[in-house]
Amino acid sequence: MKIVLSMVAASLLLLISLSTCSASLAQFAGDWNNVDPNTGGITKLSIAVSGASANVHAWGKCHPTDCDWGSVNAFAFAPDVSSDLVSQAQALMATFVTSFSETNLFINAQGSQLIVQSYTRFTDNSGRSNYGSRDVFKKGSSISAVGTIAEIQPLQKYELQEILPIKRKVVYS
Amino acid sequence: MRMIYPCLAAVLLLVLTATGGLASMTQFAGSWTNVDASTRGITNMDISVMGSNAKVQAWGKCHPTDCDWGTVQAQAFAPGVSSNLIGGADTLIAVFDTSFSQTTLVIKPNGDQLIVDSYDRFLDNSGRSNYLARYTFQKAAPGGATPAPGGETPGPGEAGPGETGPGDMGPGDTGPGGSTPGSTPALIDLTGVWQCDDGGIYYVRQLGTTVWWYGERDPNTPSWSNVMRGSISGGMINAEWSDVPKGSVMQNGNLVLQIVSNNELVAVSKTGGFSGSHWTR
Q1: I want to staple B63 with a disulfide (CB 3.0 to 4.6 A). Which of A152, B55, B112, B155 is the partner?
Q2: CB distance from A125 to chain B under 8 Å?
Q3: pTM for the full predicted model
Q4: Contact B82, A128 (CB under 8 A)
Q5: Domain ranges in chain B?
Q6: Looking at the partner chain, which of A75, A77, A128 has a beta carbon nearest the beta carbon of B81?
Q7: Cα–Cα distance for residue pair B181/B98, rounded to 1 Å
Q8: Which residue in chain B has the smallest CA separation from A154?
Q9: Confidence at A99, pLDDT banded by 50, 70, 90
């Protein structure tokens, strides 16, 4: 009996672990909070999924409330050219463009978290260095803190950055 | 006094370790080879660095020599907005565009290797899925990295950007940088009798870039029989097919077939209820 129970438990564990590992577009859906409450970059993500399409809404650190970057369509990526994107998507790529910068987010699912690599490129000849960061997000409660357009600030707190509105535009279309 | 030496040693070790882990533009420079010699994706990269600028040239798997994707300007990224790019760059992003795809390479150093995440996105409504592949590169042996010139013409099963990676081995339609990975490979000759995983026999004739076939479930009273006409482009066959009334099923649709090799075809897109996916001979 013990052996049977052990086998059942092992099978269940295997099943759970496989379920966790298998990727799909649905696993990206939802509201996500940066696990680092002191981040100077992206604080929250809200990802909507419909069929093989995904839409990413991002918020950056601002005071007194976070800045709304707006939402953009994201591209989903499967492990293989013949894979089904809906059931096997393993990454999203979303691009946010402002008048002075372009930020690419590469979003990967890892267990119950999202690993987000963010690459910001400055297009205003300000001399600022392009920079990248890696953040971990976990599922959060609904997003409530939304800044006004006048409060929108760059992605991190640096002296030379300016306060400019976010354009809602996708580059890779 | 005894305590000072271990502390000093620890600090020295820490400094050395930190120095070893520091990124810079120069660590990307050089000729790089995929550690997986049998990769069907990116085989080689040449990265040239001047100041904070970097250029990336890439080659995809092709036969008899690899396909030159051309050279693109890469963007360098540092850990912070006030970091010095030359001394602190830890990522390059290079984008290769073709008429039918866009490939974004995210290149990161990992010790003395490079980890490359390749995001391939299709723009041609072919039904192929965007896909992500990860490759590891090591510094090439002197004189051994750059494929020989004249390797722009891919053979079957080879690739331009957007056509490489797991499960996708067809040559590119048009490689950037002036190479022509999409030109019809002279080496392809599909004419012959093929078997398919739908249990059928297919009689294929290739005339230049045009491919015809007649397929049937069996030669006497087939449950289905069909004809196909397609054109070869970029290692793919874009085709229309239709059942014909030797069999009883009457359907029709489109097919996109990948020419994996002279002896293997794989369907990457099917409409009309076509069941076969894999042809060999």
Answers
A1: B155
A2: no
A3: 0.62
A4: yes
A5: 24-178, 192-280
A6: A128
A7: 10
A8: B81
A9: very high
Taking CA–CA distances from B128, the nearest residue in chain A reads A81
Q: From CA B171, how far away is CA B160, in angstroms rounded?
A: 5
Q: Does A113 touch chain B (CB under 8 A)?
A: no
CB contact under 8 A, A83 and B117: no
* Contact assessment for residue B280 and residue B204, using Cβ atoms and an 8 Å cutoff: no
Instruction: Please name the residue that has the structure tokens 């030669």.
Output: B219
Spatial distance between the Cα atoms of A119 and A116, rounded to a whole number of angstroms: 10
What is residue B5's predicted lDDT score, i.e. its pLDDT?
A: 59
Provide, as residue numbers in chain B, all residues whose Cβ is less than 8 Å from the Cβ of A133.
Answer: 79
Of the candidates A76, A78, A129, the beta carbon closest to that of B85 is on A129
* Cross-chain Cβ contact B75/A121 below 8 Å: yes
CATH for B24-178, among 3.40.50.1820, 2.60.120.10, 2.40.128.30, 3.40.50.2300?
2.40.128.30
Q: Does A130 touch chain B (CB under 8 A)?
A: yes
Please report, in tens digits, the pLDDT of each residue of chain B (281 residues total).
555 555 555 544 444 444 444 568 999 999 999 999 999 899 999 999 999 899 999 999 887 788 889 999 999 999 998 899 999 999 999 999 988 899 999 999 999 999 999 999 999 888 889 999 999 999 987 655 455 444 433 333 335 565 554 333 332 332 332 333 333 333 678 889 999 988 899 999 988 888 999 999 888 888 899 999 998 877 788 889 999 999 888 888 888 888 888 888 888 888 888 888 889 88
* Chain A: closest CA distance from residue B162 (Å): 9
β B113-122/B101-110 pair status = antiparallel
CATH number of A23-167: 2.40.128.30
Helices marked H in B230-274: none
Q: What are the backbone dihedrals phi and psi of residue A4, each rounded to the nearest 5 degrees, phi first? A: -60, -45
Distance in angstroms (rounded) separating the CA atoms of residues A44 and A143: 8
Round to whole Å and give the CA distance between B227 and B242. 6
The encoded tokens of residue A130 equal: 């392009």
Q: Retrieve residue A118's tokens.
A: 């963010």
